[in-house]
Amino acid sequence: MKTFKSILAIAxxxxxxxxxxxxxxxxxxxxxxxxxxxxxxxxxxxEDQINTFRTFTQAFHDEDINQLMSVVTDSIQWSPPEYxxxxxxxxxGFKAAVLNYFDNFDDITFNxxxxxxxxxxxxxxxSLYSSGETNTDPNVMRVYGTFSCLHTETGATVYNKWYxxxxxxxxxxxxxxxxxxxxxxMQTQIExxxxxxxx
Length: 199
Description:
Elements: H1 2-30, H2 40-62, H3 65-69, E1 72-79, H4 91-104, E2 105-112, E3 123-125, E4 140-151, E5 157-168, E6 174-180, H5 183-196
Parallel strand pairs: 1-6
Antiparallel strand pairs: 2-4, 3-4, 4-5, 5-6
């Protein structure tokens, strides 16, 4: 009888041990441990930055230059989408470019995450995998989506896949802004629209 109880005890302990280990393995597979802890403060900062960018795009849509410029720093450095030899543009040049869009396009709309395959997330910060150091710093944010608008003069609808890297200062304003999209493709879409609507 003692032998039976010993075997039963060993079997129960083995089953419990396997169950615990198996649960731990499953948890590791579902939530791999990276050793990185994201603070509530950084999570809140990231959400604030998303809201700041949404204010920026809503102001673009509303053609409200004061609201739009209120979320960028006076010392903003902008790397425009068209290649310009790597020259950064400051506050006045950035504002002039925005006003040029206001003058030439209507209903400028940012569509979050549109054009991405395999993800519905438009906003990303930190770097778990990169050629730099792993970090959880939300101050540099990547944004993916599309812009759509109407060309004021012709009524052509223009679309662009769009990507940007933004850095925020301690006050939560956009301090640097690098964006990429097919600038010449906008003109091509307008020309095709005009050609297709000629008598």
